[in-house]
């Protein structure tokens, strides 16, 4: 169902962490480790967001594009599906499925503009070919749910309307991880509210207890988010570059 | 993972599971083929081929919308997408649907031009009920169809689903819960005869009520065999003002007033008084005389509620299903084509014309195919229905097309078996079909069921049963 999460393909296709954290054999042969795999996906998330800013599409399109990219890498290797082509192609497809179509030539133009690195360059034709490969890899499941929609209402209910920007930013950051492939978006949203409560030193225990959700899951997601923030400080450009380098040159 | 066929084999694996019968349709998006599944010769499939859009912008947004929605939904009264295939060589996309032999356009035309007789009440009511049932499912899942018209409402031919209505063609359908852009950005939708007045008057944020208006128009057409509002379309871009269409509507339904339709005043074309639309005066409305129904007839009551000017007051699909009309004899049934009363005349509708000159690669032989071959494969199809070789599609190459993975297909077939979930999405709490698994013995028991249907409340899940209805 298009907007009934409970009968959606999104819910049915959720994965376990162990299923997501699998480095494909072809990539392993290039020396790519699980850490590299995650770093490259993080790098590509940033790439998609930056490109999206330039072509002026909204956050939901970015979120859908990142979800597509992460879903594809649970099925296909980076060796076969070069991230530097897959990322903009996911944005291209997500823009269509979110009814905000962006022309491929516009993407190609901005890629050239914002990334002087030759390895990011791509042609319109390559994006169009990749679009079809993505459709296939996604098994044509295109409807993606995100935590954004229910956020304002939940925050208001929790008496945290003032924390909307903070929470929204945390939700954006969750796309730098694979959470959207593993957990239902409403739980991710609640975890973000939980993190925001912690950061704001607001005690929301009673409110959370009133929700009929598994608080253990919410807290675990929140811990992952906080862990991610801790680790992110240690990520250097060198590490990212080293990981990207293992992928080698395109073509 | 992908089992791409090797270069030497120019019939990709996915294609080998089908036998092509011929071409059955052609649109701006591409071609539609009729094929049979080799492993199950009784099963026919319609394969819709989307061409790569000309402006070099990849898969057409129309195809994306259709795939995206149909992949999520599963309802007896919505056409079933059974497979998607991609040909990477010519970048074309194929959607395989369960094939429906008839559509309302052909059924209405057959009655008007061939039988010269109205469609029987049971059939009209059953078609309408199933159409509303499918639409209620779509609307309760926040999907607007936006292009309902007789040719998009299919009816299954012989087989286990005989006479079951299927809503098709989701190329304009979209989710309307949280659009990122105003809905009018997609350009004007809905073929003009079935277009709701709020759209004709330039409304931008329209709702699922536009589909109900179209259903009203289709209902009237089923009754009279003539399009209800047959306006002359003004062809210009972008979105010209369709005065003639509004004129046709106002002549039948009377002049709309801000009194009865408060938001009328905010509609752009009304506000700007395009072509002095406000000043036109129309005589007293006469919908009942156009459809030859007494104003007291429940059918008329339902129709007039579908053709309510104010979209906010217009009846919803859920409310319509609960209307008295469906609780009166004859009760609607699952097989809309075969009335349950034994002895009642059964109309044999012609089968769809098939152009057997086109082969599966899309190349066409220039010689007309012998009609016998058409009759053979399409099951007694009349010779005159075979289409001429009007158009030779450009050749397409199917090598290198990937096949759907088995496990994924299995998962797909399970779609929505889990049931409807959140009942909040089913506002009227209308009993809904939860997948088609409930009718395993359909074919064998067709006849008994036809006779039994009226006694056991039709015995079909989701169909209105008088006992269980809430009044």
TrEMBL record, chain A:
Stretch forming the signal peptide: none
Domain Cyclin-like as annotated: residue spans: 46-136, 149-227
Q: Which GO terms describe its biological process?
A: cell division; regulation of transcription by RNA polymerase II
Instruction: Tell me which Gene3D superfamilies the record gives.
Output: Cyclin-like
- Which Pfam families does the entry link to? Cyclin_N
Alphabetized, the UniProt keywords read:
Cell cycle, Cell division, Cyclin
- Which GO-annotated molecular functions does the record name? cyclin-dependent protein serine/threonine kinase regulator activity
Q: Which InterPro entries match?
A: Cyclin-like_dom, Cyclin-like_sf, Cyclin/Ssn8, Cyclin_N
Instruction: Give the family per the record.
Output: Belongs to the cyclin family. Cyclin C subfamily.
Matches recorded under PANTHER family: CYCLIN
Q: What is this protein called?
A: Cyclin family protein
Taxonomic path: Eukaryota, Viridiplantae, Streptophyta, Embryophyta, Tracheophyta
UniProtKB/TrEMBL annotation, chain B:
Q: Which SUPFAM superfamilies match?
A: Protein kinase-like (PK-like) (SSF56112)
Binding of ATP occurs at 49
**Keyword hit for Transferase:** yes
MF-aspect GO terms: ATP binding; cyclin-dependent protein serine/threonine kinase activity; RNA polymerase II CTD heptapeptide repeat kinase activity
Q: Which reaction does it catalyse?
A: [DNA-directed RNA polymerase] + ATP = phospho-[DNA-directed RNA polymerase] + ADP + H(+); L-seryl-[protein] + ATP = O-phospho-L-seryl-[protein] + ADP + H(+); L-threonyl-[protein] + ATP = O-phospho-L-threonyl-[protein] + ADP + H(+)
Biased composition of type Low complexity is found at 442-451
ATP-binding listed as a keyword = yes
Gene Ontology CC terms = mediator complex
One Pfam family, short name:
Pkinase
Q: Keywords on this record?
A: ATP-binding, Kinase, Nucleotide-binding, Phosphoprotein, Serine/threonine-protein kinase, Transferase
Protein kinase domain sequence ranges = 18-326
Database matches in InterPro entries: CDK (IPR050108), Kinase-like_dom_sf (IPR011009), Prot_kinase_dom (IPR000719), Protein_kinase_ATP_BS (IPR017441), Ser/Thr_kinase_AS (IPR008271)
Q: What class of enzyme is it?
A: transferase
Ranges for the region named Disordered are 420-471
EC number(s) given by UniProt: 2.7.11.22, 2.7.11.23
| Coiled-coil blocks | none
User: For this UniProt entry, which residues form the secretion signal?
Assistant: none
Specify the domain of life of the species encoding this protein: Eukaryota
Stated family? Belongs to the protein kinase superfamily. CMGC Ser/Thr protein kinase family. CDC2/CDKX subfamily.
Q: What is this protein called?
A: Cyclin-dependent kinase E-1
């Amino acid at each position: 169902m298009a907007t009934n999460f409970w009968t959606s393909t999104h819910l049915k296709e959720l994965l376990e962490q162990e299923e997501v954290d699998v480095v494909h054999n072809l990539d392993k042969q290039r020396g790519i480790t699980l850490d590299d795999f995650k770093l490259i996906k993080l790098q590509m998330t940033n790439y998609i967001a930056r490109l999206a800013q330039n072509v002026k599409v909204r956050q939901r399109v970015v979120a859908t594009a990142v979800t597509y990219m992460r879903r594809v890498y649970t099925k296909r290797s980076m060796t076969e599906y070069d991230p530097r082509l897959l990322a903009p192609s996911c944005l291209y497809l997500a823009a269509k499925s979110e009814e905000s179509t962006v022309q491929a030539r516009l993407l190609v133009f901005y890629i050239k503009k914002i990334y002087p690195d030759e390895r990011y360059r791509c042609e319109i034709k390559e994006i169009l070919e990749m679009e079809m490969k993505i459709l296939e890899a996604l098994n044509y499941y295109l409807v993606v749910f995100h935590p954004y929609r229910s956020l304002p209402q939940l925050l208001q209910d929790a008496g945290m309307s003032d924390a909307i920007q903070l929470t929204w930013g945390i939700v954006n950051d969750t796309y730098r991880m694979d959470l959207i492939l593993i957990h239902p978006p409403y739980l991710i949203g609640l975890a973000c509210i939980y993190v925001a409560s912690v950061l704001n030193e607001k005690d929301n225990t009673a409110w959370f207890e009133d929700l009929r959700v598994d608080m253990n899951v919410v807290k675990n997601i929140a811990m992952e988010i906080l862990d991610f923030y801790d680790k992110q400080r240690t990520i250097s450009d060198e590490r990212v570059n080293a990981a990207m380098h293992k992928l080698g040159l395109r073509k | 993972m992908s089992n791409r066929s090797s270069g030497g084999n120019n019939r990709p694996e996915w294609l080998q599971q089908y036998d092509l019968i011929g071409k059955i349709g052609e649109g701006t998006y591409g071609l539609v083929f009729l094929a049979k599944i080799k492993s199950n010769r009784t099963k026919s499939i319609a394969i819709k081929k989307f061409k790569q859009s000309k402006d070099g912008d990849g898969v057409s947004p129309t195809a994306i919308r259709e795939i995206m929605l149909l992949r999520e939904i599963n309802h007896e009264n919505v056409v079933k997408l059974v497979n998607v295939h991609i040909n990477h060589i010519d970048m074309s996309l194929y959607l395989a649907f369960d094939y429906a032999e008839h559509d309302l356009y052909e059924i209405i035309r057959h009655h008007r031009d061939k039988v010269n007789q109205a469609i029987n009440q049971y059939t009209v009511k059953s078609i309408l009920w199933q159409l509303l049932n499918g639409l209620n499912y779509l609307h309760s899942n926040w999907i607007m169809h936006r292009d309902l018209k007789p040719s998009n409402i299919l009816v299954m031919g012989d087989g286990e689903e005989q006479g079951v209505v299927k809503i098709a063609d989701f190329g304009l359908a979209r989710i309307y819960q949280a659009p990122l852009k105003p809905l009018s950005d997609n350009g004007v939708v809905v073929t003009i005869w079935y277009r709701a007045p709020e759209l004709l008057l330039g409304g931008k944020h329209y709702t699922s009520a536009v589909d109900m208006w179209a259903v009203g128009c289709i209902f009237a057409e089923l009754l009279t065999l003539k399009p209800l509002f047959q306006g002359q379309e003004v062809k210009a871009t972008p979105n010209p003002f369709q005065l003639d269409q509004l004129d046709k509507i106002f002549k039948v339904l009377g002049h709309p007033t801000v009194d009865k339709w408060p938001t009328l005043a905010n509609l752009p074309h009304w506000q700007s008084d395009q072509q002095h639309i406000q000043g036109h005066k129309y005589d007293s409305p006469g919908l009942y005389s156009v459809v030859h129904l007494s104003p007291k007839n429940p059918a008329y009551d339902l129709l007039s509620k579908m053709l309510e000017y104010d979209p906010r007051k217009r009846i919803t699909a859920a409310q319509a299903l609960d209307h008295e009309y469906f609780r009166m004899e004859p009760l609607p049934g699952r097989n809309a084509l075969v009335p349950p009363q034994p002895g009642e005349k059964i109309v044999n509708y012609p089968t769809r014309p098939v152009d057997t000159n086109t082969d599966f690669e899309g190349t066409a032989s220039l010689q007309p195919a012998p009609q016998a071959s058409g009759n053979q494969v399409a099951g007694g199809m009349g010779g005159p229905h075979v289409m001429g070789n009007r158009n030779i599609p450009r050749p397409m190459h199917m090598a290198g097309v990937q096949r759907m993975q088995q496990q994924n297909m299995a998962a797909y077939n399970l779609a929505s078996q889990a049931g409807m979930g959140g009942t909040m999405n089913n506002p009227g709490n209308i009993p809904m079909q939860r997948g088609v698994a409930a009718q395993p013995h359909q074919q064998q028991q067709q006849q008994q069921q036809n006779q039994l249907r009226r006694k056991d409340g039709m015995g079909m899940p989701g169909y209105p049963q008088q006992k269980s209805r809430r009044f």
